[in-house]
C-alpha cells in the first residue's frame, strides 16, 4: 500500500496538493486538500477493469468555478437551514444566505472551499490522509471555534473509510457529510437511471418547495421511495409522486435508516457489475439524483447533465434546529463529535 503526492495547481496563491491512496488490489482513491475533495475513485468492474466511479475535475479552477460540491466535505452544517438563521441557548444567529434566502451546506465559504492541513499515515493493511481545520467562531455565522479532523482511509478490502471527529468551545450546530457523486458505470459511460439502490429505510422526510423539511415523516410504502427490496433510480424520475416532482423529477430527500453498519445502503450497476455498499453510524442518508445538474460545463470531457451521478450523503437531518422532534445536531462544549461511514466496492 502506498500514498502518492502531487501538485494539483494553485488557488488564490495557495498551492493545492493531491493525495492518491493505492491498495494492494490496485484500487485508488485521490483526494485534494481543497475541500477534502475526492476527485477520483478507481474501482474494478466484473472483468477487473479499473475505472473512475465518481464525478470530478482535473483542475482546481474547475472546482472553484463549476462544482456542485463534487466529492467535497460539506459543513459546518450539511443540508439546508430555513431562513438562514437559528436560535441557540436564547441567542439568535444569522447565517450566510446562499440558497433562495436559506442556508445550504455551510454557506458561501463552507468546508468545501477551505484549504485543509494534511498529514499521511501508512500502515501494512491501510493508508490514510488526515485533514484538519479550525473553523473559527462566527465563521459563516456559526458560534464557537470548531476544531475538526476528517480522515480518509483505504484498506486492502477495497473499502474507503471516512471518519469525522471534532469539538467546540461553545454550543454550536454540527452536521457534516461527504458529497461525492457516484456513477458505477465507470468513466461516465452512462447515467445513473438504471442503477439499482437498496435502502433499509421505512420513512423519508417530506420537503417544501425550497427543499427544506416540513417536519413530516412520510412512509415509503407503495411509493417510488420504497427501496427496501431494491429498485432502479429511474422509477423516481418517472414517478408522479408530488415529492419526486418537487425534487426535479428524482430524489433530494433524507431517508431515515432502520439499521446501521449492516449493509443498509447498496448501489449496483448491473452492466459493469460494480456494487457499492455503504455502512454508517448516522441516522439518515440524503439521496440526491443530480436532477438539478446543469450549467454548460463538462466533467472530464462529458457534458454535464441531469442524472449523471447520485449522492448518498450520510448525515443528521437538515434543518433539525427548527424541528424539536428531530434528533438534535447541537454540539456542546466538552462533547466530541464523531461520525464514520464506510464505502466498500465489490462486484456482483
UniProtKB/TrEMBL annotation:
Presence of keyword Amino-acid biosynthesis: no
Annotated metabolic or biological route of this protein: Carbohydrate metabolism; hexose metabolism
Catalytic activity: alpha-D-glucose = beta-D-glucose
PROSITE patterns: ALDOSE_1_EPIMERASE
Keywords linked to the UniProt accession: Carbohydrate metabolism, Isomerase
Residues involved in beta-D-galactose binding: 179-181, 252
Active site: 179 (proton donor), 313 (proton acceptor)
A GO CC term assigned to this protein in UniProt: cytoplasm
InterPro entries with a match to the protein in the record: Ald1_epimerase_CS, Aldose_1-epimerase, Aldose_1/G6P_1-epimerase, Gal_mutarotase_sf_dom, Galactose_mutarotase-like, GH-type_carb-bd
One Gene Ontology term of the molecular function aspect: carbohydrate binding
SUPFAM superfamilies reported in the protein's UniProt record: Galactose mutarotase-like
A Pfam family hit: Aldose_epim
BP-aspect Gene Ontology terms: galactose catabolic process via UDP-galactose, Leloir pathway; glucose metabolic process
EC primary class: isomerase
PANTHER family: ALDOSE-1-EPIMERASE, GALACTOSE MUTAROTASE
Annotated family: Belongs to the aldose epimerase family.
NCBIfam families linked: PRK11055.1
Protein's name according to its UniProt entry: Aldose 1-epimerase
Organism: Neobacillus novalis
